[in-house]
Amino acid sequence: MPSNLAVQPAMHSVRVWRGTGEGAFRRYDVPASQNQTVLDLVTYIQRVLDPSLSYRFACRVGMCGSCAMTVNGRPRWTCRTHVAKVAAEGEIVIAPLANMPVVKDLAVDMRAFFDKWALAKGAFAPSDDATADFAVVAPGSPERREADAAIECIGCGVCYAACDVVAWNPDYLGPAALNRAWTLVNDVRDRGQSERLLAVAGDAGCHACHSHESCRTYCPKSLNPTASIAGLKRAVARAVVGGTL
Amino acid sequence: MTDARTASQVRFEARLWLAQRASAMVLALCVVVHLATIVLAVRGGLSAAEILERTRGSVAWLFFYALFIAAVAVHAPIGLRTIIAEWLGWRGRSLDLAVALFAVLIAAAGLRTVLGLYA
After folding, report:
1. Taking CB atoms and an 8 Å limit, are B6 and A198 in contact across chains?
2. Facing residue for B85 by CB, picked from A203, A237, A240
3. Residue range A163-172: average pLDDT?
4. Average pLDDT in the A185-214 region?
């Protein structure tokens, strides 16, 4: 018998946030099993104990980013968090992501989060018409490398929930939207750069970042939005000094 | 907000950001020299007489501390502006004027002290 079974309890005591802005934690006892994830706990509660529980998930394997929740105070993908890892802390407390209004139970309203991607000019602004030949971007070019380092974001909202500045300043665009803008600042095909730099600078943009690096700490993709935001600060400074903004 | 106003606001914020970083670099150097002097140069206790003996008539110390004060007068108000905006929610032109006044206050009081050490 594997040794980790010996220390695992038969039941997990799980406290889950129920309700909307007004609400409370409710306790559930969920049978323990091997290789159990926090998403497994939530799914068990919804399917067996309380069908009225609302939560979001899709792929269950860490590809879609829709199952992010606050687990024992930290924003995480529940499908990629083994119970064994957090059960050591005692009780398991599952809450909705922070910094977003709660729709119900563990499901949050992510509209503001995604609207900010648009406000940060997170859409590619093409220069060539559709009939033009493929643009060639050398994989080893500095711009391509900068973009590569930030491009794998799948918009789960963990960084946004972890960010202190988002909590203090509701207008702040947040790590994910600014990280997206940084990939496009480094896209040599893009022709919307001035508008983008204007959109991401200032009090609600990159200059508000305190470099606490909570985004980097909790990003399940191990991205570093803080570095992207620092890149935006430099890009804005260069544009202002160079007189192009 | 119109695009022109947004652009000028962004330029203003970006310049403040640059000014704060540049002044931080100056401060890093000045603070090291300042602390090293306190630790290494003290002989007969940290007395006013000994400090004045070092600084009176020294153009080098005059310029050093004038630069120090200038860097503080640039650096501190910009940081204070951000803290006030974030903690108290006070933003806009009135805040900019208030911290500009604070900058003048630091510069005036500081330079007066520096001159007092020189002459």
Report:
1. yes
2. A203
3. 92
4. 92
CB contact under 8 A, B18 and A169: no
| Pairwise pLDDT comparison (A243 vs A138), residue with the higher score | A138
The minimum CA-CA distance between B44 and chain A, rounded to whole Å, is 43
If one compares B5 and A161, the residue with the highest pLDDT of the two is A161
Number of domains observed in the structure of chain B: 1
- Give the per-residue pLDDT at A244: 85
Query: A82: which DSSP letter?
Result: B
Domain ranges, residue B10: 3-118
Contact between chains at B13 and A197 (C-beta distance less than 8 A): no
Helices (H), B1-119: 3-41, 48-55, 59-88, 93-118
Per-domain boundaries in chain A: 3-108, 111-241
Closest partner CB to A240 (pick from B14, B86, B91): B14
Q: What is the share, in percent, of chain B residues with pLDDT greater than 70? A: 96
Cα distance between residue A28 and residue A185, in whole Å? 47
A203 and B7 within 8 Å at the Cβ level: the answer is: no
Q: What is the CATH number of domain A3-108?
A: 3.10.20.30
**C-alpha to C-alpha distances, A177 to A68, A103, A151, A235, A245, nearest whole angstrom:** 17, 22, 12, 16, 21
CATH code where residue B12 lies: 1.20.1300.10
Q: Which of A193, A206, A215, A212 is nearest to A233 (CA)?
A: A206
Task: Looking at the complex, report in whole angstroms how far the Cα of residue B57 sits from the nearest Cα belonging to chain A.
Answer: 39
Instruction: Give me the percent of chain A exceeding a pLDDT of 70.
Output: 96
Q: Which of B13, B85, B86 sits opposite A201 (nearest CB)?
A: B13
Q: Using the predicted structure, report yes or no on whether residue B9 has a pLDDT greater than 90.
A: no
- Write the CATH number of the domain with boundaries A111-241: 1.10.1060.10
Question: Averaged over A109-115, what is the pLDDT?
Answer: 97
A102 strand-pairing partners: A108
Nearest chain A residue (CA) to B89: A169
Chain A contact set for B19 (CB, 8 A):
none
Contact B11 A207 (CB under 8 A): no
Q: Give yes or no for B8 touching A (CB within 8 A).
A: no
Q: What is the mean pLDDT of residues B15-34?
A: 95
Quick one: average pLDDT of A96-120? Answer: 97
Strand A92-95, strand A74-77: pairing: unpaired
